[in-house]
Amino acid sequence: MSDKRDFLATAGVNTRLAHTGNVPSDYHGFVNPPIVRASTVLFPDARTMDTRAQKYTYGTRGTPTTDALCEAIDALEGSAGTILVPSGLAAVTVPFLAFLSSGDHALIVDSVYFPTRNFCNTMLTRMGVTVEYYDPAIGAGIEALIRPNTRLVHTEAPGSNTFEMQDISAISGVAHRHGCVVTMDNTWATPLYFKPLDHGVDISIHAATKYPSGHSDILMGTVSANAKHWEQLHEATITLGICGSPDDSYQILRGLRTMGVRLERHQESALNLARWLEEHEDVERVLHPALPRFPGHDIWKRDFTGASGIFSFVLKVSEQAQVKARAHAFLDALSIFGLGYSWGGYESLALVVGLSDRTICKQPAEGPVIRLQIGLEDVPDLRRDLEAGFAAAAAVSA
């Protein structure tokens, strides 16, 4: 058969997902690469060992299985290289450690994933890095915040839990004029619906725990870099001794094969429910960037090619004293929606969002924020479950 690499370069998303990261001819025709578990790797002689003149030298530096996943992610991201780490949070912290030093200044979007903020406020601060949070809507105005020692600008769009959009291209352009590295947590959109490196981002971060896994049973993060920043990122992960396991890599690679069709279903169901919730009498507002009423929708429409299955809404309450009681009553009445963290799996989830950490994008005044992960269940069943939650919340008295 002819080489399929040229064909895949212009193929559709689902075709590429089905055929990247595997070369059956390398493994006797088997369509899935084998799981190669390794710590020790043997060398044929002392000279090869001394010069490390072979592809694999130790398990932390990669195996054929982890390389297969990295190649697949590079094909999706358009990146020069990808590292695998044990969690989505590690995917954020490793590049921070790679590119920041004592005395540096880092700009972090205020709508950031809370564990990222916690890492910044604790470990980065103890390292002597000054951390400053900025408004996600700042755009090119971020230039006013850049100092002579600013080294990194971290973005996340949409924002965690409240889904604020960012003008990534404008922020990247300004940051690069000042010599800053731009990182982005792109977990919500995946590289199928937004490609950070095409918008000026240097380091694309993804919690593969979510949609690439798709089955709520794997923890992993991927970090993909452009050519300018790849070597420094790669060296940092080797120095830190952080790596993803071959077994988990195999599971993520398998999850990629169906990620396109799963995301289509997540998107369709989530938008159906978000539009329904916009008109619901017990909802103050819906926080979903694909809705025309949502601030930042124009940026989403311009830059993104799709939406995933997670969004939030503000539950209506008549008195502030009812906020926690009504939110808890809503959640406790749910049957199909599970109460749990994470998202991107096949099952629907719900939780009350905590926003006490915010300094700019603060808690909506109207009521509690409920975050929904819309899974692969039938929409009429999910509506019926949510209606039970609304009825329970409405029954709560102050």
UniProtKB/TrEMBL annotation:
<dbReference type="GO" id="GO:0019450">
    <property type="term" value="P:L-cysteine catabolic process to pyruvate"/>
</dbReference>
<dbReference type="InterPro" id="IPR000277">
    <property type="entry name" value="Cys/Met-Metab_PyrdxlP-dep_enz"/>
</dbReference>
<dbReference type="GO" id="GO:0047804">
    <property type="term" value="F:cysteine-S-conjugate beta-lyase activity"/>
</dbReference>
<dbReference type="InterPro" id="IPR015422">
    <property type="entry name" value="PyrdxlP-dep_Trfase_small"/>
</dbReference>
<dbReference type="GO" id="GO:0030170">
    <property type="term" value="F:pyridoxal phosphate binding"/>
</dbReference>
<keyword id="KW-0456">Lyase</keyword>
<dbReference type="InterPro" id="IPR006233">
    <property type="entry name" value="Cys_b_lyase_bac"/>
</dbReference>
<protein>
    <submittedName>
        <fullName>Cystathionine beta-lyase</fullName>
        <ecNumber>4.4.1.8</ecNumber>
    </submittedName>
</protein>
<keyword id="KW-0663">Pyridoxal phosphate</keyword>
<dbReference type="InterPro" id="IPR015424">
    <property type="entry name" value="PyrdxlP-dep_Trfase"/>
</dbReference>
<dbReference type="InterPro" id="IPR015421">
    <property type="entry name" value="PyrdxlP-dep_Trfase_major"/>
</dbReference>
<feature type="modified residue" description="N6-(pyridoxal phosphate)lysine">
    <location>
        <position position="210"/>
    </location>
</feature>
<dbReference type="GO" id="GO:0019346">
    <property type="term" value="P:transsulfuration"/>
</dbReference>
<dbReference type="Pfam" id="PF01053">
    <property type="entry name" value="Cys_Met_Meta_PP"/>
</dbReference>
<comment type="similarity">
    <text>Belongs to the trans-sulfuration enzymes family.</text>
</comment>
